[in-house]
Design brief:
The chain is an alpha/beta fold and about 210 residues long. The protein has 6 helices and 7 strands. The protein is globular.
């Protein structure tokens, strides 16, 4: 199997997992959303600047409530069933957003299309996170910023536990709990402007920019 075929297979598997849980996804994460997730999302989007913004991994549209006013937002997701949940939520809540089914690893936008790009809890599940991050760097204007709200591999003993549990968590929910996302941002050729620890070294707000 070629590298391209292997990447396609991994992406198809990840897409199928999210299609499978789309109907109950919001229910699964409801306790976390009522806890810290909503606060972290609000914090993330308070920094985002337009006029053109791209959100990757829109999921079921959980960020809609925090979108800044007076900006043009395009939002994409690679799971058709998650996308459909987001589309219905946008209609129900009157959210103005250009929704598209699209894979962050292969964004169908020209270079320098957006003033800001945003992802929340996305790069834990992208099959090739470095390629996805490179794509964010490509479509973000050189003067723009890339905003990531991500959970990462914890340090010390908890990191070892995450490594052991990761295959089971991925199989059940599609998300990796042991990703080195800060390091992946650097490997993708992006420049980190700021990393803020939001929760015990596991949840981080990462602000980066393209080196182009």
């Amino acid at each position: 199997m070629s590298r391209s075929e292997d990447e396609d297979r991994k992406t198809a598997t990840a897409r199928a997992r999210y299609d499978r849980i789309a109907a109950i996804y919001d229910l699964i994460e409801a306790p976390m959303e009522r806890g810290s997730f909503a606060r972290w999302r609000r914090r993330l989007w308070a920094e985002v600047k337009g006029p053109r913004v791209l959100e990757v991994g829109v999921g079921t549209g959980k960020n809609f409530a925090y979108y800044p006013k007076d900006v043009s937002i395009t939002a994409v997701d690679f799971s058709p069933r998650m996308f459909e949940k987001a589309r219905r939520r946008a209609e129900r809540e009157g959210v103005r957003v250009d929704l598209r089914v699209m894979d962050v690893q292969h964004l169908d936008f020209p270079d320098d299309s957006f003033d800001s790009t945003v992802a929340s809890f996305v790069f834990c599940s992208v099959p090739d996170p470095i390629e996805g991050l490179r794509e964010l760097g490509r479509v973000t204007k050189p003067a723009g910023s890339i905003y990531l709200l991500e959970h990462v591999r914890p340090s010390g003993f908890l990191g070892n536990v995450a490594d052991i549990l990761n295959p089971l968590v991925v199989r059940m929910q599609g998300a990796n709990i042991n990703r080195y996302t800060v390091e992946n941002v650097i490997k993708a050729g992006l420049t980190i402007e700021r990393v803020e620890d939001l929760w015990h070294g596991i949840v981080k707000l990462i602000v980066a920019r393209s080196e182009r």
